[in-house]
Specification:
The chain is 66% helix and 4% strand. It is mainly alpha-helical and 740 residues long. Strands 1-2-4-3 form a 4-stranded mixed sheet. The chain has a two-stranded parallel ribbon with strand order 5-6. Strands 7-8 form a two-stranded antiparallel ribbon. The N and C termini lie far apart (75 Å).
Length: 740
């Protein structure tokens, strides 16, 4: 028993000996040319001057306020209009004091934290630390004092803080998805790249200084906090007009200083971007000398693929969180998502990487330029292990799970409960099943289920079992006969619906007196008469297309219900209660056909309300897209508030109906409704941005749930038709774009 328990440690020790033995030797260092190093010194010196310029501006403002206090006391001696004189004397002092405060506070403001990573101790991960130390010796870089991990698709090595410039206190950050998806030599290439920066010694310290100052300027220019919002509020609704006048003057002065900062920031980017790009080239060459130039191309491709899979995994988790379900291993979910990419998806990513170009102000070169630089190096490499990178970690699975929980807690806090975590395998299997079911839905209706409408038939007339097959055959034949007409109608519906949305958005901006570029809305006309004619034409086209689609799809939806109920003797169709709802037995299983059909029929009654909500959301969204941080026209503000109120009123109407529809699938919370699934908390109508987000979440939730239920039914129906000798219909061809 004792030997069985120690076996994993013995195995890692054996593998570790093999790995470390193959990581011996030293690479030829990347020399920093004297002219390049001199350029770095000049750039760093210029970057240091820029903050000094900012401090000089602060000092100038302080001196101007002081000079005003000393030399303009005569304003207080003017007898007439004493309140005006007092305002002229006190106003600049108040404005200057607030301006100095706003200029100084970003210097001491805390940087927003993305959450604490998990720091690994040397005693816990001895092989990882020894491997990293030996790699540092190989490239001539100092050893990191700490190694931390997180769930991002990235790796970074940097100074722990500003004192690290002197003490050399380095921290290595490893993204666990890289360790999960890379071979060991690929992860080694990424780490060697990071250590390649530090092998450059003084050059790295200079580049760190340059990057830090650039990031500091970006914070000064773009970050806003509650003080900024308070100043905006006081300038608009500050009570006495004198207070509003002083606050408005402060906002103008602050805008001017931020404009100066913006100029300094771009100056810093211009003078530093070339040098920083060169450091990336040198670090890539260092990595190529460790693992070989041929390996580097694969590293870039896989890292790009994993990054996309990571973002797609987050989108999947966002949807799963509606059911209060989360995967317990985010790195493994990322790997599973990446492994499901189709060849066409990978080709698309490769084309995008190849089409990218290095721009003048980029701090990192594009993939194509980096690849060319590495290939010119033509390094054979020293380290060639093809073991998985995860062998460096003592218990990689547990580490991924712990890091995943930490990742969730950063955004969910105490809302995260143990019962919310589910196995990654089951979560990914559910995602794959949904994709397969969506394909079945497209085959079953031949692509005629277009997004943006809740298609469902209310016909529930029974069919005798001995006639079921004949009815299904007739419906399939009818679909084949009307497919061309239906495909054309679906295209017309999609185009006309988009046209109506564009017109509504255009009119919303007109009402807000916003300057509009008609080309942005793909509109050839701007006068009201022509717009009204275009809207009437689009609505007529959409109405005709909708009528055609209903005529074709209603029998197919009845076919769907009929086929999916094959052999379901104990589960008759839900009973119409006469009020738009259908009675479902309390003991009907979650995800069962009975629950899905009941929910679909209830949702179909809300098609009109959902369409109205979608139009109001589009109007609010386009208005918010032109809102600036400050100095918005009054007409725009009024129109935004009006649109927010209208959108929120319709949102409450929709959710009142959704609360009456039980959520048909299993949910962590018992008794959950579709309303709860779509949006947990409804916003205040006076807060446009939360209203817009809640409405978008509701619309996404309704249509995602609709597609999931229809897809599940389609999969069951397709299997049932196959069982009685009716082969699945072929996958539909992509519909041609038709102008409305």
């Amino acid at each position: 028993m004792e030997s069985a328990e120690t076996h994993p440690d013995q195995h890692q020790a054996s593998v570790g000996t093999q790995i470390l033995a193959s990581l011996r030797g030293k690479t030829k260092p990347i020399r920093t040319p004297p002219l390049y190093f001199a350029g770095l010194i000049l750039v760093a010196g210029a970057m240091i001057v820029l903050p000094l310029v900012y401090l000089a501006v602060i000092a100038l403002v302080i001196y101007a306020v002081y000079w005003h206090c000393i030399n303009d006391t005569g304003l207080l001696q003017i007898s007439h209009s004493s309140w005006i004189s007092l305002l002229l004397y006190v106003g600049p002092i108040v404005v200057g004091a607030i301006l100095v405060l706003f200029m100084i506070k970003p210097i001491f403001a805390r940087r927003t934290s993305g959450g604490k990573p998990m720091v690994l101790k040397r005693a816990e991960e001895p092989l990882l630390y020894e491997f990293v130390d030996q790699l540092c010796d190989m490239v001539g870089a100092p050893h990191p004092r700490e190694i931390a991990v997180d769930c991002q698709v990235n790796a970074a090595a940097g100074f722990k803080n500003a004192l690290g410039l002197v003490t050399g206190n380095l921290v290595l950050m490893i993204g666990l998805p890289l360790a999960a998806g890379f071979e060991l030599r690929q992860l080694t290439a990424v780490l060697a790249h990071e250590f390649g920066h530090f092998a450059q010694g003084s050059a790295m310290r200079l580049s760190y200084l340059i990057r830090t100052i650039n990031a500091w300027f970006a914070r000064l220019v773009f970050e806003r906090d509650k003080w900024d919002r308070m100043l905006v509020t006081q300038s608009r609704r500050g009570g006495h007009y004198a207070i509003r006048l002083v606050c408005s003057a402060c906002r103008i002065a602050i805008w001017l200083t931020r404009w100066i900062l913006w100029c300094l920031m771009w100056t810093g980017n211009v003078i530093s971007s070339f040098m920083l790009r060169q450091m990336e080239y040198d670090a890539d060459r260092c990595a190529a000398r460790v693992v070989g130039s041929s390996v580097m191309e694969g590293v870039a491709e896989r890292a790009s693929s994993l990054a996309l899979a990571f973002h797609m995994s987050l989108a999947d988790l966002s949807t799963a969180w509606r059911e209060k379900r989360l995967a317990d291993d985010l790195p493994m979910l990322t790997i599973a998502r990446e492994s499901a990419f189709q060849p066409k998806d990978r080709q698309t990513m490769a084309d995008r990487r190849g089409a990218a170009r290095t721009r003048l102000f980029d701090s990192h070169p594009c993939a194509r330029d980096r690849s060319a630089s590495v290939q010119r190096e033509n390094a054979p490499g020293i380290f060639t292990s093809d073991l998985p990178a995860s062998v460096l970690f003592k218990d990689f699975k547990e580490l991924c799970c712990l890091s995943t929980i930490g990742f969730y807690r950063q955004s969910l806090g105490r809302a995260l409960k143990p019962e919310h975590l589910h196995s990654t395998e089951s979560m990914f299997a559910g995602h794959q099943k949904l994709r397969a079911n969506v394909s079945a839905l497209q085959r079953y209706f031949q692509g005629l289920i277009v997004p943006g409408h809740l298609w469902f038939s209310q016909d529930q007339s029974p069919v005798p079992d001995d006639q079921r097959r004949e009815v299904l055959i007739q419906a399939r034949n009818a679909l084949a006969e009307n497919l061309d007409r239906g495909t054309a109608a679906a295209a017309h519906y999609a185009v006309s619906d988009a046209s109506i949305a564009q017109i509504l958005c255009f009119r919303s901006l007109q009402s807000a007196e916003v300057k509009i570029n008609p080309q942005k809305f793909k509109m050839d006309v701007t006068d009201e008469a022509s717009i009204a004619t275009a809207e009437t034409s689009s609505r007529t086209t959409r109405s005709a297309a909708l009528e055609t689609l209903n005529e074709i799809l209603n029998p197919q939806i009845r076919r769907l219900i009929l086929a999916s109920s094959a052999g379901d003797k104990a589960a008759p169709l839900p009973v119409d209660c006469g009020d738009g709802n259908y009675d479902v037995a309390a003991d009907a299983p979650y995800g069962s056909r009975r629950r899905l059909i009941d929910a679909l029929r209830s949702l179909s009654h809300l098609a009109g309300a959902i369409e109205t909500l979608q139009q109001r959301w589009q109007a609010l969204s386009v208005l918010l897209s032109v809102v600036r941080r400050d100095k918005n026209p009054r007409a725009l503000v009024l129109q935004v508030m009006r649109a927010s109120e209208q959108c929120c009123e319709q949102l409450f109407v929709v959710h009142a109906a959704l609360r009456a529809i039980p959520y048909p699938y299993e949910h962590t919370e018992r008794g959950a409704t579709v309303s709860r699934y779509c949006c947990e908390q409804l916003p205040n109508k006076k807060n446009p941005s939360p209203v817009q987000k809640a409405t978008r979440a509701t619309l996404n939730g309704v249509f995602d749930l609709y597609m999931r239920m229809m897809s599940d039914l389609a999969q069951w129906a397709e299997e049932a038709e196959t069982a009685i000798g009716l082969s699945p219909l072929p996958a539909p061809k992509p519909a041609a774009v038709t102008k409305a």
